[in-house]
Amino acid sequence: MTSPAPDEAADERPLEGWCPHPSEVPLPEIVDQAFDYRGDVTVLRRGADPIVGYVYNRETGGPAPFLQMFQASDGAALTVPYAEIHTIHFTGRDPAAGKSYEAWLRRKAAGAGV
Question: Which of 2.30.30, 1.10.3470, 2.40.128, 1.10.10 would CATH assign to domain 27-111?
Answer without folding.
Answer: 2.30.30
